[in-house]
Amino acid sequence: MRDDPRTLLGAEGPFARLLPGFAPRAEQQDMAEAVHAALGKRGRLVVEAGTGVGKTFAYLVPALLAEERVILSTGTRNLQDQLFFKDLPLVLDALDLHVNTALLKGRANYLCLHRLETAVHDTRPQAQKHTAVLQRMQSWGRRSERGDIVEFTDVPEDSPLWPRVTSTVDNCLGSECPRYDACFVVKARRQAQEAELVVINHHLFMADLSLKDTGFGELLPEAGAVILDEAHQLPEVASQFFGTSLGSRQLLDLAQDTVAEQIAEAHDMTALRTLAADLEKATRDFRLLMGREGQRAAWQPMTERREIADGLQTLQDNLTTLTAALDSVAERGKGLANCYRRATQSLARLHALVEPEDAVIQWFETFPRSFVIHSTPLDIATPFQQQMARRDCAWVFTSATLTVDGGFDHFCQRMGVTDTETLQLDSPFDFQNNALLYLPPDMPDPNSEAHTRAVVEEAIPLIQANGGRCFLLFTSYRALRTAAGRLQGRVDYPLLVQGEAPRAVLIERFRELGNAVLLGTSSFWEGVDVRGQALSLVIIDKLPFASPGDPVLSARLDAIRAGGGNPFMEYQVPQAAIALKQGVGRLIRDVNDRGLLVLCDPRVTGKHYGRVFLRSLPEIPRTRRRAEALDFLAACQEVA
Predict the structure, then answer these.
(1) CA 528 to CA 206: how far, in whole Å?
(2) How far is residue 636's CA from residue 623's CA, in Å, rounded to a whole number?
(3) Could you tell me if 519 and 429 are in contact, meaning their C-beta atoms sit under 8 angstroms apart?
(4) Neighbours of 157 (CB within 10 A)
């Protein structure tokens, strides 16, 4: 029985005996059996497990039964913590197993004791205002076993102070650091090297692959199996790590660290301060030249502007001068040597922006005070396929949203996953009786100004009839803001609008209020789990097609077109279908959940490709009549 995941997860198994509310599910047992088989023969498996299948237990059980090291990767740090601190202990207890496990995050999640000391001793006036909180941080750092920054709640997660006291690949001193023996990152990696099961996230996993490709080092231990949950996120994460980028934060950090290390290691070299200040000014000036915040566009047209070309040259000149100066003092201290290495790398990246390689997409982003310039590969399938070939291990990819129109082709082609078995498991929830899809008739064209107004007018009576308890999901911030303005004062329930508070705070308020209306864009389409009657109405304004003006998307579509393909049907529709499935997945989160899904895009029924979206969703009954939708909400209220 201990070697049979199906039996362990069955009616007579330990989970049914020991876990309150555990219900055996055939779909979960099927997935566990398939994962167990893949791990046993070091095969490849791609699994779509609909909401309610219980995929976490379905891969944890065979992972813990495996006699080889297993790496588990999931989409976010929050999911990583949930997996390690909640789900994993439950499964270990149920199986009565003692397995050496480890949690490993990226280095930016751990306090850097050396950089903290440097920050504490920073005598510059702008640094002195943080002295008190830095001293409290020192006290915490001496007590903490993990050094995970989530433990220190005195400083918000998005505070600009964290980059000063955590490390990056660029500024880490490695084994030459004076605090290396006490380093939290080193401790976490050592634990991971010794563990039989390591829980990480996709960003760290891809960082490990990209580091191996450079021959620099290995973050993660070799393993007999890699299990990647929330696998639908992998293509975008892989694009980041198989490419390169240069941002203002890297340059400003370099300038600030140069000053700090000069104070610590080369008091007499005050000229370094001037050169660092020049680089800092050139970086900030260049950000101003780039214009408004919120841009995400192709880089080449930007370089054709004279002021941008001149600003880029100034930036390059200042970085070259600082690099030469650091070269002359690098031998005087480990910190200065590290700054020289970083300056050299940044200069190489800056040169690459002027003379780009083939088959890459160059683009940039602007934020209120910063910028990043990226070089992203057109194709991630080839490099990822090469990385898989280098690891003699089992590969399991799973998510609730991997198929499009019943097939895995889109995901497998994007990731270069070949010679794989696939398994599609529908949700065990009763969508036929517990959910209804309402497609409002006579909706305006989604691209017209009238569309958002029509969405709001359609939503108000439904929200009122449902007693609030609604998610309104939008594909753009502009539509969200318009809808928020038109809803003010017209519904009798609290309005929670993305941007008014952090995402986690809004979700918690939504749960606590029990009758709220939450308006959100893409970040609320997935990873949000609200069970029960607090959420029984989800309204989606449009099919979530990515912006055609996005530079990466535009380049990939051009490449498909140049190869004789149909970029709309081969790429844009599948991507939007997967995103829509994520949004729809917010509605029914438990066996007793009931609710109405509203999709306000007339293209679902008016365009030939609309049926691809409908066939990709769970089998939910549909209606075009508002009266029937209202009756269904009333029936849900009676059952509740």
Answers:
(1) 24
(2) 16
(3) no
(4) 11
Burial (Cβ within 10 Å: 0-12, 13-18, ≥19) of residue 259: buried
Q: Is 244 helix (H, G, I), strand (E, B) or coil?
A: strand
Q: Which residue has the tokens 């889109």?
A: 410
Q: Which residue has the tokens 């950089």?
A: 115
Q: Report yes or no: 270 and 340 within 8 Å, Cβ to Cβ.
A: no
Distance of CA 304 to the CA centre of its chain: 33
pLDDT above 70 for 215: no
Token duo for residue 289:
């030249």
Q: What is the pTM of this model?
A: 0.88
CB 551 within 8 A of CB 243: no
Q: What is the pLDDT at residue 228?
A: 97
Burial class (CB in 10 A: 0-12, 13-18, 19+), 503: middle
Helix (H) / strand (E) element for 396: namely strand 394-399
* Of 547, 508, 556, 514, residue with least CA distance to 532: 514
As a three-state string, the secondary structure of 516-584 is CEEEECHHHCCCCCCCHHHCCEEEECCCCCCCCCCHHHHHHHHHHHHCCCCHHHHHHHHHHHHHHHHHH
Q: Once rounded to an integer, what is the mean pLDDT over residues 329-339?
A: 92
Distance of CA 352 to the CA centre of its chain: 27
pLDDT reading at 303 higher than 80: yes
In tens, the pLDDT along 600-623 reads 999 999 999 999 999 999 999 999
Write the DSSP symbol of residue 232: G
DSSP state at residue 178: T
With beta carbons less than 8 A apart as the criterion, state whether 181 and 213 touch: no
Q: Are 326 and 262 in contact (CB under 8 A)?
A: no
Q: Which tokens in the block code for residue 564?
A: 């004789």
C-alpha to C-alpha distance for 216 and 193, rounded to whole angstroms = 17
Q: What is the distance between the alpha carbons of residues 299 and 373, in angstroms, rounded to a whole number?
A: 8
> In this structure, which amino acid lies at residue 218?
E
